[in-house]
Amino acid sequence: MTAVVPTVVKEGDMVRLTCSTACPGYLIENPVWSRDGEAVASPTFQARLEDAGSYQCAVEPLRSNAVALDVQYLPRNTTVQVEPPGEVSRGSSVNLTCSSVANPPVHNYTWWWYNGTTPPTVSSMLVQVGTGQVLHRPSLEASQRGHYLCQARNPLGEHNASALLQMEETTLGKTFVVVLCRGGVTVFATLGIVLVCLWSRKQRRAKEKRPAHDSQAGEIAYSTIGNFRETRPVKHRDSNVNLKEQPFESPEAGEAGGQHVIYSTV
User: Strand, coil or helix: what is 175?
Assistant: First the structure.
């Protein structure tokens, strides 16, 4: 008994498993199929990647020899790895490695370059920059940054993947940014110092003016107090003149027996 299995199919092709015997014209009905020791649900199916393996048919107690089924497919899971990763400096070297899964294996890797955020729609805008699984770029220039597209190909087709190669800013650009930042910090610091000095000077002047004003006021008060003399109210004599009559006896009066009146002020 022999299992009749297509040895090579492409992914997506229809597969029909048949089983025959050495007896001419004898057809085995409803054989039991297995793949790598596991039962197969149906002898007819659309080939998938996981359908590849070794097939046997059996009619108890007989079992056929195993026949391999090879499911082929075009490249897939293509990736591009940049080494060293991240941004690279001008003048340094970099390696780009392309990897892909395919059956049969990829036999051709082609590298293309384009500058932009999305792949160009016209193939003529792509620039071919190399072949092989690894692309080496020595002494990088600013004009070489951009997207690098890897095209992996086998007999069934091709598959693409790309990676962005970024380059660090030039030393001049970094220096300019650093100087600009430092200059800004210096300007703000100087402005702050000037404002503090002006504020301190204003406060100092205000303090100097305030004691002078207070001192002047004190002197004025002092001079006013010093020049002030306490004067007691002057008692004026009564304007009314009290005239008292004092008798005055004159010797001559005694003799004459007459009296004269003398007015005096008290």
Answer: helix
State CA 96 to chain mean position distance. Answer: 28
Distance separating alpha carbons of residues 193 and 218, to the nearest angstrom: 38
Structure tokens at 11: 């992914």
- Please identify which residue in the block is written with the tokens 């990647």: 49
Domain count, the chain: 2
> Is residue 160 left, alpha or beta, with left meaning phi > 0 and alpha meaning psi from -120 to 50?
beta
Strand ranges (DSSP E) for 155-217? 157-165
* Residue 194 burial (CB count, 10 A): 10
The rounded distance, in Å, linking the Cα atoms of 14 and 3 is 17
Domain boundary among 107, 137, 165: 165
10-residue mean pLDDT profile of the chain (266 residues): values are: 83 91 73 93 94 91 87 96 90 95 97 81 79 94 92 96 85 43 60 78 71 47 42 46 45 45 48
| Domain match, 60 and 93 both | no
Residue 27 sits in a domain whose CATH number is 2.60.40
Q: d(Cα 47, Cα 12) in Å, to the nearest integer?
A: 5
Residue 11's domain comprises 2-65
Assessment of whether the complete model's pTM goes beyond 0.90: no
